Amino acid sequence: MIKRQYEVNKIESLLNQLDAFVIKPTSGSTGKGILVITGKQACEFFGVDGHSIQLPDIKKHVSNILSGLYSLGGKPDTAMVEALVHFDPVFDRYSFQGVPDIRVIVFQGYPVMAMLRLSTKASKGKANLHQGAVGVGICIARGESVKAVQFNKHIKKHPDTKTAFDQLMIPHWEDLLVLAASCYEVTKLGYIGIDIVLDKTAGPQILELNARPGLAIQIANGEGLAPRLERIEKETKSRNAKERAAFSQQVFASQ
Asked: Which fold has domain 89-251?
């Protein structure tokens, strides 16, 4: 974490420990302010499309984050540095350069809706729908694709790789749902969006938690959230994370 402007000058020693990394604002929104570095050579860094980025440019980007350039309301922010995830090759045909992630909406501890976000050339390797990434609705019960959208329009194939989405299935689906459901105990938030990535060696990993997740997930699934939230409101809160995930798989099996 980099919280103050004077710490920007110390970032070089931090980045020397990482070959690939992501810098993002902790209070950002719609994917703005996220810088992805996929490799480095000496003092030169490389972005997702292979373009060169110099250390002074990275320092300037971090300084902009701290000043609140990307935060909600323009308030001073904190820059977070994360090691870059090496995603599971199961998504090789479905994503352009960037790391795909799975957004799961959890309501009162129950997973209620999910989508896979896939980077595109238009989104510049970022899995953000506002910037042109593809959102693939995912069946809660089975972890398979339902529908796919880009810029709020339904599509059947990835715009860059031309791979159809009708055979897409997410591995480790039950483990992933339990992981998402368990975030309720950690945050105590009744409504939350959990972003999860599939690392090729470590499996499902939490990328971040969102207190105000966007509603585009409804478009990707072709269904509104309200009926599912109303269904969960009738349920007990005494179940553990594994039981809640299993319940969601059962009750939303036909949706």
From this structure: D-amino Acid Aminotransferase; Chain A, domain 1 (3.30.470)
Provide the residue ranges of all domains of the chain, joining segments of one domain with +: 5-83, 89-251
Average pLDDT per 10 consecutive residues for the chain, totaling 255 residues? 90 86 85 86 84 92 93 88 81 84 96 95 84 94 94 93 93 95 94 92 87 90 94 89 96 74
Residues 6+ apart with CB under 8 A from 243: none
Report pTM. Answer: 0.75
